[in-house]
Design a protein that fits this description.
The complex is a heterodimer of chains A (115) and B (110). Chain A has 115 residues and is mostly beta strands. In chain A, the strands form 3 sheets. In chain A, strands 2, 5, 6, 10, 11 and 12 form a 6-stranded mixed sheet that branches. In chain A, strand 7 and strand 8 form a beta hairpin. In chain B, 0% of the residues lie in helices and 55% in strands. Chain B is built from no helices and 11 strands. Chain B is globular, with a radius of gyration of 13 Å. The model of chain B has no long low-confidence stretch (mean pLDDT 94). The chains are: A mainly beta (115), B mainly beta (110). Chains A and B meet through strand 6 of A and strand 5, strand 9 and strand 10 of B.
Chain lengths: 115, 110
């Protein structure tokens, strides 16, 4: 079945540092890929998405490129801020999920940004 | 625009008690979902409803039941709570690829 593997956290960075959170996936066909973010005490919210190979999703300074050859969708940001501290989830919607738009999530990576 | 709302926010149950978690969305979405979130496990799908009148099992359905009351509401019931059901529960709804999440219910079973 479909699966998502992402790097374990917590990841601790200083403000303005470069961020990479690795995500790889296993799926049949051509899935759609997502990054969700969960701020403390809140539900998840969509950060960015890519629906086909070589697409780049971007939002709020974060970027991720859908790489089919390496089955990866790594999240990057050039300069993190304290306000980016949150848990980040990589997810996929498989090509064969049928009805319901079900998502498969990774285990989440906690990011802590310090001054 | 409230989005996805969940009640209650917190709940403590004793083993064997029952309860229903409520979820409602005001975005006219067809699909709704219930997840549980546990440390180191990410989010795991319990049940989902692709459209009003249909429900299907997800990855971890045992010990739970659901009801899609109408297009807006999707409830999750624990008939006989167990300590293994201690978790944070999230409801979500979706249109196309994007899912919108509620704020969660933190449930503790003692």
């Amino acid at each position: 079945g479909d699966s998502v593997t992402q790097m374990e956290g917590p990841v601790t960075l200083s403000e303005e540092a470069f961020l990479t959170i690795n995500c790889t996936y296993t799926a049949t066909g051509y899935p759609s890929l997502f990054w969700y973010v969960q701020y403390p005490g809140e539900g998840l919210q969509l950060l960015l998405k890519a629906t086909k190979a070589d697409d780049k999703g971007s939002n709020k300074g974060f970027e991720a490129t859908y790489r089919k050859e390496t089955t990866s969708f790594h999240l990057e940001k050039g300069s993190v801020q304290v306000s980016d501290s949150a848990v980040y989830f990589c997810a996929l919607r498989g090509a064969l999920t049928g009805g319901g738009n079900k998502l498969t999530f990774g285990t989440g990576t906690q990011l802590k940004v310090e001054l | 625009n409230a989005g996805v709302t969940q009640t209650p926010k917190f709940q403590v149950l004793k083993t064997g008690q029952s309860m229903t978690l409520q979820c409602a969305q005001d975005m006219n979405h067809n699909s709704m979902y219930w997840y549980r979130q546990d440390p180191g496990m990410g989010l795991r799908l319990i049940y989902y409803s692709a459209s009003e009148g249909t429900t299907d099992k997800g990855e971890v359905p045992n010990g739970y039941n659901v009801s899609r009351l109408n297009k807006r509401e999707f409830s999750l019931r624990l008939e006989s709570a167990a300590p293994s059901q201690t978790s944070v529960y999230f409801c979500a709804s979706s249109v196309s690829h994007e899912q919108y999440f509620g704020p969660g219910t933190r449930l503790t079973v003692t």
